Please model this.
Amino acid sequence: MADSVTIIDNRTGESIEIPIVNGGVDATEWSKLLPGIWFYDPSFSTTAAAASAITELDGEAGILRYRGYPIEQLAEQSTYLEVAYLLIHGELPTPEQYEVWKHDITYHTFIHENVRKRFMEGFHHDAHPMGILVSTLAALSTFYPDAKDIFDEQSRYKQVIRLIAKMPTLAAGAHRHSVGMPFVYPDNSLDFTSNFLSMMWKVAEPRYEADPVLARALDILFILHADHEQNCGTTAMRVAGSAHADPYSCAAAAATALYGPRHGGANEAVIRMLTRIGSMDNVLPFIEDVKAGKGRLQGFGHRVYKNYDPRAKIIKETADKVFEVTGKNPLLDIALKLEEVALSDEYFTSRRLYPNVDFYSGLIYQAMGFPIEMFTVLFAIPRMSGWLAHWIELLDRNERIARPRQLYDGEPVRDYVPMDQRKASA
Ligand code: CMC
Model:
């Protein structure tokens, strides 16, 4: 049996055989037979917009691998910084390579004083930290004009280091601003995640000592969120990157997409939903409302995972360890009940809706003391390494500018009507 498909244009009788390579069929081959006829696939549900060697995801089997390494092994044995190296370079680092990487990241954590004083402090006191993050990421491009040299290897490496290193500083800065606390400078003697926690929580103590269980739990969450192939934010990164914009501007585009409640904003939406439900008595009526189309069960469902989200499984285990230190999040019982009810309800099972990465991550963040508005920021910190890995890949593969087609379904041609002769349309 040939590993190919044959399509016939019934208008002309012409046919074309297209090989199936790596699970895909080449759209340029199809369009040779169908010039001027476009594939209609808004939201790219059935379109592979890129070939990529970074993350392998099999939604049916619940598989997630970075550069071939199973997410379960990375979450158990690795650190976020090592995973960031893996995503960017394609291989796990040797001890020497890791030392250099760690040193380079650690020594680029500071941000220009103008970014802090003029940009971050300029925001209103109740500005959403994701809004601050998106804007300051874009602003950073003006501080590093060399970032435009996207085909210069050295410049590219420098921007990658800067972006990964500065994310925790920008994130913590956005939080401190919103609560009126003084900015905490990075402590280069701490590891990546402990340094972030220090910038978040340090008050008057000379050195902030993060609880090792909580620091490790957050590092695991960073590993789980580091990449997820062609999701909405990464696609935004690749689309902007394909126009050869600098990486700071591209990252701002990606962070903007992540901000949305259907994407990275869902962990925030989960806690708001659980708080609104408020008590166990309200779980069943809430589920009935969801089934009646009055809103969604936040943290449930995924475009590609239709059996289970492997990240959700690891997060649930991590949550238990965190709650041993912080005490149980009072919303946990409502979440567990929601999950139990949904997983035995035909509405959810027939649509293959299961808890996703965001269902339990918000409960952990909240138990650790992070305000709800910071949840998507916590997603963005590690996702930077995934965005950059995709940005490098698309440049290395010399991809063409992203420029989809459309099917026009608006008005046919009509003549301009002078303003005084127009009637209001219904
Ligand atoms: N609650 C209730 N019904 C749902 C939900 C949900 N969370 N998700 C999907 N459905 C229903 C939907 O109404 C539709 O039903 P019907 O066929 O009767 O019209 C069916 O399931 C298919 O939904 P869809 O909108 O076509 O699915 P999608 O693949 O376009 O959307 C999703 C995926 C994640 C946006 C969606 O499941 C959702 O909105 N979930 C809640 C938000 C959420 O948790 N997002 C985090 C995603 S994981 C983090 C990340 O990777 O960013």
User: Anything to note?
Assistant: Residues 228, 231, 262-264, 266, 290, 296-303, 351, 353, 356-358 surround carboxymethyl coenzyme *A (CB under 6 Å). The two ends are 58 Å apart (CA to CA). The beta strands are 4-9, 14-21, 24-25, 55-58, 63-66, 69-70. The chain is about 50% helix and 5% strand.
